[in-house]
Amino acid sequence: MSEENSEQTEVSDFMVFVWVTLAVAVLIGLYIGGTNIQERMAHKKEEQNYLNSEDYKLFAACEAGLKANLKSPSSYVFVKKIVATYENPPEIYIEYDADNSYGTSLRGNFWCKFKRNGSDHFELIEAKDDFKPLADLQLFKAKLAVIKSN
Q1: Could you read off the pLDDT of 71-120 as tens digits, one per residue?
Q2: Cα–chain-centroid distance for residue 30?
Q3: Cα–Cα distance between 47 and 40 in angstroms, integer?
Q4: I need a surface site. Which of 10, 53, 66, 100 has the fewest CB within 10 A?
Q5: What's the pTM?
């Protein structure tokens, strides 16, 4: 009888160890998961603020104009950007890869300069592809029209 009690005690002790280990693992998981959720929510809010920002709207307008000027817009691959809104007027620089007329992927540079038209509007005043002025800036402007930042 004492052997049975000893075996039951060992099984009980083992089960207690298993449950305690599981509980600790769950608590650690909840702590880590909760931290990740908070970080993701903060990142999502930051991203939403950026998408509503003047910088993003100017960048998006410049990028749209860039794509409209490409021989193969579907081959466009964004590489990097510089948004200089502290400049007056604001300037956007985009480095990209895209296919030329022969299907060869080349690295290009696109630059847009905007003029403030009132407190919440911008108008494109200059654009350059690979640092050469666009041949038809008026057509390019028509594609972009006026950008409202709010």
Answers
A1: 888 999 999 988 886 767 788 899 999 998 899 999 999 988 888 777 66
A2: 28
A3: 10
A4: 10
A5: 0.58
